Amino acid sequence: MQKKKLSRRKREKLWQRREMLSAALDLFSTKGYHNVTMREVAKESEFAIGTLYKFFKNKEDLYKSLVFEQADRFHEALTKAIEGADDEIEKLRDYIRAKGEVFSANAAMIRFYFAETRGASFNIMAGFNSEIREQYDVFLQKLAMVFENGIKKKIFKNIADPYYLAVSIESITNAFLFLWLEAPERHPYPEDPDIILNIILKGLSEPYT
Amino acid sequence: MQKKKLSRRKREKLWQRREMLSAALDLFSTKGYHNVTMREVAKESEFAIGTLYKFFKNKEDLYKSLVFEQADRFHEALTKAIEGADDEIEKLRDYIRAKGEVFSANAAMIRFYFAETRGASFNIMAGFNSEIREQYDVFLQKLAMVFENGIKKKIFKNIADPYYLAVSIESITNAFLFLWLEAPERHPYPEDPDIILNIILKGLSEPYT
Amino acid sequence: MQKKKLSRRKREKLWQRREMLSAALDLFSTKGYHNVTMREVAKESEFAIGTLYKFFKNKEDLYKSLVFEQADRFHEALTKAIEGADDEIEKLRDYIRAKGEVFSANAAMIRFYFAETRGASFNIMAGFNSEIREQYDVFLQKLAMVFENGIKKKIFKNIADPYYLAVSIESITNAFLFLWLEAPERHPYPEDPDIILNIILKGLSEPYT
Amino acid sequence: MQKKKLSRRKREKLWQRREMLSAALDLFSTKGYHNVTMREVAKESEFAIGTLYKFFKNKEDLYKSLVFEQADRFHEALTKAIEGADDEIEKLRDYIRAKGEVFSANAAMIRFYFAETRGASFNIMAGFNSEIREQYDVFLQKLAMVFENGIKKKIFKNIADPYYLAVSIESITNAFLFLWLEAPERHPYPEDPDIILNIILKGLSEPYT
DNA sequence: GATGAATGAGTTTTCATTCAT
DNA sequence: GATGAATGAAAACTCATTCAT
């Protein structure tokens, strides 16, 4: 086991880093990159500014670290979800469930995620955007594969380009998450994945075609 | 006619205002709120800073004005689209087409839109968000109505809450716009609205119920 | 006349600039580059910090401007001095007098000059050093020429390389200025240039060869 | 003998101190006081910052210690030089040689010396300047004495105040050192002290007087 | 006794906003 | 009424110094 090998020093470092990133996530997600000062992050995380700068070489570095960390966490969970089951429909159900779990656990993260992926700090991201975008695209390709395979296996009808189907289910789940974020009571993220899934599984128009 | 009543003075004012907002849209959409200075907006719009402040009481006010203006334009176009045709399917087609037209004509606006609705300046908007959100919700309700009526008329199967259907088609079209924004060549916003529409019309699973 | 052409605006600008450089000279010369804050320069010159930054793009730029300005003033005065008279000895007398005049008028400048040319901020100067150094060398060459011509005309004995003679008289006058700076009463810069000049004109050792 | 009395402990301390000062000299002489951090001195000398502070109560103290140490070394060498020989001319030759030896051996020291005596850190030195200056003046007085005695003995002509003669020969040798520092190849500090000495010994003007 | 992580005061610089011309 | 020069508050970041281990 590697984890046992970490010295007390190292473990403390890691814990401190986590504290800082956690404070930063809270602040960035509610106020946005430019409305958060390093002083605030320092105060919120209960470290001195200088200490913050020991861990992150500047504000942007702190921000990027946060983005990468969250993106990794997110990417990993979703990838695992669509790689678990054998059945394509089950894969999609797992994916919808996982997305809900990862995000519902942390409203700050979802707010941050939307601020990041769509718009918001698209200016700050300029430089490292590509890396994240690539990682995201890798996932989209995998998701598209699920549809492609489903179509090949005749589980799905061939109604649209698998990539667009992937993008669509992504955007629909995001929309549900967004609704939940705004009014958790009124619009809970559905327990039953089929509530979302049916929207693209069962066609609206029976006679239509 | 009301427009004839406007004095030359008034009309000039309006034109100046439009120049300013246009310059602001260009800058904000490409660089983001915090990376644009009033000096830049002044230079770009070829007015003096002081003149800018005659029209907008501060930077935030300029920004908000822009948001409201764009939102209005957008809202109006989409509302008109779904109120035109009689047939529900045709309404949806019109909606998809209109969305493409409004946005495709102006990449700046779409970039700005995403920065606004999803994330980005959700911080700046804090206060007046509600107003925009309300307007947006009015539209969502109307869009939901299209689905509800379609279901009542048995044009659509009753596969999900009409409101969620509205949110879904909104998010799918957004996703397509986003793809187009990133790579206009590779992912053109479809000429034929059915390419998008089919995703929720024709269900993926035939045998699945 | 060109000066008459300057608009009131331009003249005011120039005056402001001079005020700032004057305050900066005072501060830099007494406290040294690193011990002076922009806030101090602003306060001393009675402008806002922002105004300071309108004239000089950063602290280093302010500093460099000061160095160049002073160097120019100094260089010009000395060059004129050694180019005025025909007689070599008279040239040297004029040079010694001019040096005294330029500096005696302004203790701040001499302090600043020593801090700059010898040592001090040799770190800050790194980049533009060469330019100043070159200008200085041009002068040294001209001064060496005075000695060379004097030797050719048999006014001077050929006791050393003219360049070294130039460097020597430069350093001796500097030494006198330095003494004056430290104790103006006890060590006034001599009215009669021959007091300095004799040191290298009249040899110490008659019999010695 | 006093040195034998030093305990191993004491000797080690002394050695450590020397290591620190040596690292400090290297850094200060190349980068200047304000561009050197205590962290750097610690790293360069391979001690911990805390240890540095055991030896010097703060950065300024470290700097001053360095100045005093170097000044002592310098002062001692030069004093010894002018006290060795009996003949005044030989004393001056020894002085010129010694100056070359002390400095040529250590470019860092000369750079540091110029940064200190002329300009640079005259700001940092403010407080303790006087002490160094006094020591330096003691030396200047002794050097002046050499001239005074030479004049009394009729070895030298009485062409100027002995103190000014001392200052002059000091500044000329400095100028040569400075030239050497800038371009060691082109301007070597002369092996033969007479090359410098002649400048004040042999008068330039034969017929003059 | 040695260490170096943690601290936070202090510095440079930007930019929204005002107001005299 | 238009202008844009002047303002200064506020932000990012550095580094001398302390002190718990």
SSE arrangement:
The structure is a homotetramer of 209-residue chains.
Chain A: H1 8-31, H2 38-45, H3 49-55, H4 59-84, H5 88-104, H6 107-117, H7 122-152, H8 162-182, H9 194-201
Helix pairs in contact in A: 1-2, 1-4, 1-6, 4-5, 4-7, 5-7, 7-8
Chain A binds a DNA duplex (21 and 21 nucleotides) through residues 37-39, 42, 47-51, 53-54, 58-59.
Write a structural description.
Four copies of one chain form a homotetramer. Chain A has 209 residues and is an all-alpha fold. In chain A, α1 crosses α4, α4 runs parallel beside α7 and α5 packs antiparallel against α7. The termini of chain A are far apart. The interface between A and B is large, with 51 and 50 residues. Chain A binds a DNA duplex (21 and 21 nucleotides) through α2 and α3.
Describe what is shown at a glance.
The structure is a homotetramer of 209-residue chains. With 209 residues, the first copy, chain A, is mainly α.
CATH class of the largest domain in chain A: Mainly Alpha
Strand content of chain A: under 5%
Radius of gyration of chain A using CA atoms only: 20 Å
- Low-confidence segments of chain A, given as residue ranges, are 117-127
Q: What is the H/E order of chain A?
A: HHHHHHHHH
The separation of the N and C termini of chain A measures: 58 Å
Q: How many β-strands of chain A, per DSSP?
A: 0
Based on secondary structure, the structural category of chain A is mainly alpha
The main pleated sheet of chain A reads as: none
Name given to the CATH homologous superfamily of the largest domain in chain A? Tetracycline Repressor, domain 2
Largest interface: A-B, 51 and 50 residues
Average residue pLDDT of chain A: 83
CATH topology of the largest domain in chain A: Tetracycline Repressor, domain 2
Task: Please indicate the count of domains of chain A.
Answer: 2
Shape of chain A: elongated
Helix content of chain A: over 70%
Number of helices of chain A: 9
What is the CATH architecture term of the largest domain in chain A? Orthogonal Bundle
